[in-house]
Amino acid sequence: MKIKNISLRNINDWVTRMIRRVLVIAIMLVSISQTYLYAQRKDSDAKISHSNYKRAAQLGREKVSDANVRIRYAFNAEDIKNKSTWIDEGQLKIAPDMTDYSSYFVEVNEDSLAHWFDTNPRAAVYPPARWIQGHRPDYWIEYQYSQITTKDGILTEWATMPRELDMENLYYTEKLPLFDWKIGTDTATICGYECFKATCHWRGRDFTAWFTPDIPVEYGPWKFGGLPGLIMKVYDNDGIYTFEAVAVENGNFPIYAPRGSKYKQSTREKVWKLQHDLNVDYLKTTGHSVFNLKLNREMTSRRHQYTQLELE
């Protein structure tokens, strides 16, 4: 039997090829990881109840204040010019005595549905979620279906729950969160306003915010605030959550109390955990099931990749 001579050069070439293959695989794995980390999408079995839309549209609204400024934000937009790629369009209403952050998509849908009921009083059926927009509009995520209000130094989250927990809506209060912002010198123009950069670590994540002193209020989207100017854009440094202002409006914008079924008092920790569990495994959390046609069997658990904005 002949044994081929293996030169040192051949060995080096083989090692080089193997190293290149390993690097290619590593780059692919990093790319997959970054794809998952970039922009948390709606990826669960949780849907909002159609009856929730109906109740909200038919019960009317209780006005609690009047805002004279409204800022609209694109939330987790893959394409800022295409609203169908946004998870939500949030709205921050600023009144002299309080602020309110809620979903503009949801409000427009409820307004349109209420108008439809007014013009079709004898209709036996109705078009649920007919006007709602954005990515997977029928599906639930807490950032779209929660209302955040602040008043007298107290923040309240009114958490609307998905379908099977439709009558178990919750709320909690906490002192306004404290953000230890470090203000830098970098500037950027967002929505026509000159903004300054600020960074902080808050509830397990590192965040970057861009604020404008031209609008001298200490507020921003969701729970963010505490800077000497309106927060126009804020995102975590992993690129999972992003709020970016797309419109600043002056006028009269009523602030309404939460609608639909009654809200039961809870704690931030309990609401935070329930929201996490509903996103990760909605079927197991609610004790419900779905029939999977491909597998031809009942599914009582189905896990999804999810990471919350607040990690602690």
Can you describe this structure?
- It is built from five helices and 14 strands.
- Strand 13 (290-292) and strand 14 (297-299) form a beta hairpin.
- The strands form two sheets. A twelve-stranded mixed β-sheet has the order 7-8-9-10-11-1-2-3-4-5-6-12. A two-stranded antiparallel ribbon has the order 13-14.
- The protein is of the alpha+beta class and 312 residues long.
- The protein has helices at residues 8-37, 50-58, 104-119, 268-280, 282-286; strands at 63-75, 88-94, 99-103, 146-151, 154-159, 170-175, 182-190, 193-202, 205-212, 230-236, 242-256, 264-265, 290-292, 297-299.
- The termini are far apart.
- Helix 2 packs across helix 3.
> What shape does the CA trace take?
globular
Q: Low-confidence stretches at least 5 residues in length (pLDDT < 50)?
A: 24-37
Span between N and C termini? 67 Å
Report on the biggest sheet.
12 strands, mixed
- The residue fraction in helices comes out at 10-25%
- Order of strands, main sheet, comes to 7-8-9-10-11-1-2-3-4-5-6-12
